[in-house]
Design goal:
This protein is of the alpha/beta class and 289 residues long. The chain folds into two domains: 114 residues, Nitrogenase molybdenum iron protein domain (Rossmann fold, 3-Layer(aba) Sandwich); 128 residues, 3-Layer(aba) Sandwich (Rossmann fold). 47% of the residues lie in helices and 15% in strands. The protein contains twelve helices and eleven strands. The strands form three sheets. Strands 6, 7, 8, 9, 10 and 11 form a six-stranded mixed β-sheet that branches. A three-stranded parallel β-sheet has the order 1-4-5, with helices on both faces. The chain has a two-stranded parallel sheet with strand order 2-3. The chain is globular, with a radius of gyration of 24 Å. The N and C termini lie far apart (86 Å).
Length: 289
Amino acid sequence: MKKILFTFAAAALLLSGCGAKGEEQKQSGEPKIVATTMALVDTADQLNIDLAGIPSTSKEIPAKYKNVTQIGQVKKPNMEIVQSLQPTNILSVTSIKPEMEKALNGSKVKATYYNYNSIEKMQNSITQMGEDFDRKEEAKKLNARYDAEIAKINKKIKGKKKPKVLVLLGVPGSYMISTEHSFFGNLVELAGGENVVKAKHSDEEFIASNTEHLFKLQPDIILRASHGFPNQVKAMFDEEFKTNTIWRNFKATKNNRVFDLDETLFGITANINADQSLEKMYELLYEEK
């Protein structure tokens, strides 16, 4: 009987110790952060922020997060995995907020949405992230990169005529037109160009249009971007520009000013390589290197 009581007491003591440890971890204030896009993962890496979860991706993952749990697709995270991580913070971007809110519906998990639709808005988000996770100096240093690049481009474009630019965003089988409110449109303007397609509303990043209307705008340059499946999208655009008489007669087509954007530099939202994206955009618009 004494042996049984001793065993029970020892077990209770062990469990008490484990509980105290768990409570200690809970009270330590250490955040458990899940980032839902690679743009946020790369930002967190630059700010030296630990992550508990990252999106599943075929892109290069920063070495810091090679062994971090992957939570599934950007717009459709696996909520069982997410909740198993017991995150204190879920980080996402405003451009996919409707999809994320739908995914999070019914769970107790709340997300913080950062705006990455332009370089300036990304910089504001980086500053906010630095404040949220005590990385103010790292955020300031990262933002200085973009300030320096913008200042450099401003000097280059001073006094130059603005080329008129049309940006097409393709997915296999269809495409949309980029407006000045998209990241592509922001890069065009910062690099000294003019977006020929203007949005009617401030939340319109991409709109539908027809080639007849676009032909009337006569852009000097046509840029073709892809959102996933870049090889398929390029093949689609090549076929469209080869077989559609209207595209063949665009001034930009006749002058060989149609360019395909590299998806690693030109995503639908800004990322930490935005300074390189801006430099490349300038080179495309003015044919300078």
